[in-house]
Amino acid sequence: MHLKQDKPDNRNVLDTTAQGVIGAPLTRPEGLLKVTGTATYAAEYEVEGCLEGVLVSVPIMSGEVLSIDEDSVLAMPGVVAVISDERLTGRAAQGTAGEAPFQPAQTVCYWGQPVALVVAETFEQARDAAKHLVIETRAQDVPVDPEKVDTKVEETTRTGDLAHAMAEAAHSVDVEFTTEGHASAAMEPHAAIAQWQDDSLTVHASLQMLKFNRAELADSLGLKEEQVRLVSPYVGGGFGSKLGISQEAVAASLAAMHLGRPVRVVMSRQQVFQTIMRRSETHQRVRLAADNEGRLTGFGHEARVSNLPGESFAEPVLQSSQFLYAGENRLLQLEIARIHRMTAGSVRAPGEAVGVQTVEQAMDMLAEKAGIDPVELRLRNIPEKHPANGKPFSSRKLAEALREGAKAFGWEPRPRKPRHTREGEWWIGTGVASAARVHAVVEAKARVTLRPDGTAVVETDMTDIGTGTYAILGQVAGEMLGLMPDDIDVRLGDTDFPAGSGSGGSWGAASCGSAVFLACEGLRKKLAERLKVADDGLTLKDGFVRWDGGEKALTELLDGKPLDATGHFEPGDSTEDMAISSYGAFFAEVAVNHWTGETRVRRMTGAFGIGRVLNARTARSQCLGGMTWCIGNALTETLLFDPNDGHLVNCDLAEYHVPVNRDVPDLDVLLLEERDGSASPIQAKGVGELGLCGGAGAIANAIYDACGARVFAYPMAPNRVLAAMPQN
Ligand code: MOS
Predict the structure, then answer these.
(1) Is a pLDDT exceeding 70 seen at residue 88?
(2) Where are the domains positioned within the chain?
(3) Ligand 1 center from residue 534 Cα (angstroms)
(4) Per CATH, which fold does 2-40+441-570 belong to?
(5) CA separation (Å) from 591 to 373, 426, 428, 638, 693?
(6) Does any ligand 1 atom lie closer than 6 A to the CB of residue 501?
(7) Average pLDDT, stretch 520-544?
(8) Of 20, 539, 597, 659, which residue is 20 to 30 A from 533 by alpha carbon distance?
(9) Residue 689 C-alpha to ligand 1 middle, in angstroms?
(10) Is the CB of residue 243 below 6 angstroms from any atom belonging to ligand 1?
């Protein structure tokens, strides 16, 4: 079945089916493999005769490679070759392929850029030789601090007169914030094993978007797409870092093609930090103008971000500011500075992950000025239609999330006044923030086959990056075909299967779930035709097909032969006609140490409206992951660049501080019942990234409520909290 979705689908088919597995909190079918270490990740395949490659980087921010002296290492034990190619040195091998132009060979664009691959019989030999490879470079002086570089305006939305609204406002807030760069910090490093045989390339890799990655890799190697097969059934986290191909996959492929032997390349943790996309640091200004009742009359959000020269991506900081709150006088402006750091790209929830929390802090300040409870202030400012383009909103559970979340958390509605509770050395406070993340869907195909024994197979090149794709696709198929998910074999992550949407931008579940749904609608139609009944007259449950007047076992109906159908979902006007987003609310309680400024998050509640929940357990897990990142975003995560030579200083997990168990309290997640027929044929919206969009603002507001420190720089490390703490 092919569907280009031009109209909302409000039939809610999955609510009319009989199996009862959709939405159930089932465990992941591949969970046991993962926790027992038997799921095979990219680097772990045993390939006979496999050579080992180690990437060699150069320590300059900008400049050129004058020479690579291959003879300096070729005589070392086990060394087979040094591969240096313009595709390695050029930025085409980085991230958002198709956007980055090829750089002339030997241009160095950022500190730590790989320019060669040393290939040897063993990893140790390759690593040793990589350290001894003599590379001559010429460095060029470039600015190190993005704040000291001129910017160019990327995007402006202007309505009415914000300055006037600010001047006339009964209450106003005008504040600036900074956020530091973030790393995806996926547990599994970037890795690839490339095999070249009979003019065909097979790469076991760790990637999020196989359909696109295949095209990117073929393009950068000068191959046809049909010559490239990517295999990526398990991905140890992506968070955006594996959206596009990067150097390890290109290098391994080039080496395998040159040498005629399989080659494995695994980035070291440091190389992942130094070469893979970063989230841009941001400098933001938020302006809010409100009347006496706290109703917004003006809304301003400006941000400056950075990226490498020539890169088209700009952290979309203002994405949700376009529509989250009302205010008829609006100014939103995004500016970009060009800086020689590794490519800035999509890191989990690009834009909202750093753009919502600042607005939410400004809202908290406005609530205090206006003497209004912060939850109430937000409720008063939910716009009726999209403030910039006038589109109607589809489903939007923002008000419910604020109310239900407040109830679950035990929020005391009151105007804010800090320093009300102290326990020994610790100030205790609470804070709230809204959550918003735009919804997207992407073309996706999947094939579903009913086997003669009454079990089924789902096949698509869709990936599972830890999100639960295996579980939810089995549930969609099980619900539609009247089977238990245990009887469905979900096969993912291989470009030999029909092309899915890939995992990115929180669109995977809704897009690929819809492809599986459409394939199953096709199968139901075929079964109905066999029985000569209308397909909506069929009930499929527990391996039986029932209709008005009869019942048959599925196996009997299949009569010893398999039956398959392909689902093809394409986004159409339904997502264009409406403003579609996922929404939620965060509530946080913190303790701030009076003497050290240390903040401990004591509890956190998140309430989210994500359309149909496909699996209550994996959806909740996504929210938990997002809220955990909120804690890192608020308190610890920051990329630190050396102000002298521009190198990334904290390029490992010891020094780049993601929250660990001791930092994360019990997190409470509420999933609000919702259907959105405009969002996708299965009425689901994006969930993955929503939990990260705004929550750091709730923590910031809780810090203020606790100790009176209003911190405008993220992360709110102890020194910053202490410096902002009132001295009494
Ligand atoms: Mo996401 S940052 O689109 O993997």
Answers:
(1) no
(2) 2-40+441-570, 152-181+279-439+580-724
(3) 41
(4) Aldehyde Oxidoreductase; domain 4 (3.30.365)
(5) 21, 6, 5, 22, 22
(6) no
(7) 94
(8) 20
(9) 8
(10) yes
